[in-house]
Amino acid sequence: MSGEEKLLCYNRGCAKQYVESENSEDVCIHHPGMPVFHDALKGWSCCQRRVTDFTEFLNITGCRKSKHSNMKPAEPEVKPSNPVEITSHGQTTHRKAVEKVQEPRPSDDLPYQRLKFSISDSLKKALEKHKQSRTTNDENTDPGVVQKGTTCKNNACNGVYVDEESNKQACQYHPGNPIFHEGYKFWSCCLRRTCDFDEFLKQEGCSSGSHLWFLTDEQKKKAVTCRFDHYQMGSSVIISVYAKLCDPEKSFVEANCTCLRAGLVFGNSSKFDLDIKLHGVIYPDKSVVTYSATKVEIKLKKKEASNWPRLELQSPNS
Description:
CHORD_dom; CS_dom; HSP20-like_chaperone; btk motif of tyrosine-protein kinase itk; single chain
């Protein structure tokens, strides 16, 4: 039995591994239906339960028991429906469906407008607590003494202060600013470009120098990197920027029909700038921003409820 090949169950909502000798009639709990996404609600066609959160949807327990199956379920066949026309002789014919004319993309130079936003209660409480904590630390900490565990503030350096020997270690860092443009991510001081955010974060610094344990007020306003991702839900595309303790009073998110830009101030006055040329067209007046304690969520309303192959519009040469 230990040498028996493990198979992956492809029943929807299961995805467990199994061995055929233990595959009985009630070991697999799955959904025989299809995913249903309608008016921000998510569920399965075989169940009545509906949720709004995508993670909750993925965790909805299956409604049927059966054997595991390593055969992928067939996708439903979608047949094009052409209009029916009855001729004067009583014959039935099918007219060819009229192809939708592609509307021209609006200009990227249209005026930007600030997006409506809301602030979660958790962020309001966290910001107040953070403000009090910073006041206490400023009163009790000697500004000239580096505390053990302090991290280097230079871009791309992971140095941590342990003792005086830490000052003798070389600091490999990027002196420039992070730039996100037309799907590319790079540093203004380097020529190396990548489309993958994780690869961008791993890029070794292009300059060598001394560690920077303290930031001046001016340096704190300098742009830093911040992880962000996105997912799509019907007529919306949701961008999550993982900026903890973002200050809505000092931040902004604005857009026109084809572009999005943001300036987020978070943590200890760190600043993250985002400037994206969107793949599709949106309605800025129907798009909203939610500031929470751990992230900033930007929900963009698509003009057409079709899937975007990517978030950013790529240049013809890429």
